[in-house]
Specification:
Length: 184
């Protein structure tokens, strides 16, 4: 229904998105006041929008959030994530955010080519890997880490959320593998 509103009543959608952005800003500011060291804003539908609709109905509100939170908390890092947002990485990186979260549908090397050293990169192991054997988890972690060649900073993470059914032992394998292959 949201995309229907985008085409049938864009003014109403802008009104709703503006109110939502204001709520997110208030929430994030409170998170910082409560001790959060960094923040992340998720847009799980941005990748299904055309470029012009993404800029108008998603990125403009993420920009508002970044500007407002940075005005009050300039030293608190903010990472922006748009699921399937690989085609929008330059625009996301130009918002003034400190990091760009990426899902598993884009290679880290491609991300580095697109955005250079503007921001840190967070991601991007396919969360479905967590249902595989420990050996596969370990190998896939290495593949992700081997893709990153830059010096802007890479925060290893899943390319989206994790589900409760994942075996906790595989999470241990993931963390141990990241430490082993990243040299930390």
């Amino acid at each position: 229904k949201t995309k229907r509103m985008l085409f049938n009543d864009p003014q109403m959608l802008h009104l709703l998105l503006d109110k939502l952005a204001d709520s997110v800003i208030a929430y994030l500011n409170q998170q910082v006041l409560s001790g959060a060291d960094s923040l992340m804003v998720f847009d799980t539908w941005g990748g299904v929008l055309s470029k012009s609709n993404y800029l108008d109905f998603s990125l403009s509100y993420m920009q508002k959030i970044v500007n407002s939170v940075k005005a009050k908390h300039p030293n608190t890092p903010i990472t922006l994530f748009s699921k399937n947002g690989g085609k929008h990485l330059n625009e996301i990186a130009n918002t003034g955010c400190d990091g760009v979260g990426i899902d598993w549908t884009v290679e880290l090397g491609e991300v580095e080519q697109q955005i250079g050293d503007k921001v840190a990169i967070q991601g991007n192991l396919d969360p479905a890997v967590m249902y595989a054997t420990p050996e596969v988890v370990r190998a896939e972690v290495k593949k992700v880490l081997d893709q990153f060649k830059g010096d802007t900073g890479h925060v290893f993470n899943l390319g989206h959320g994790i589900t409760p059914e994942v075996d906790p032992e595989n999470m241990k394998v993931l963390v141990d593998s990241v430490h082993e292959f990243s040299g930390q």
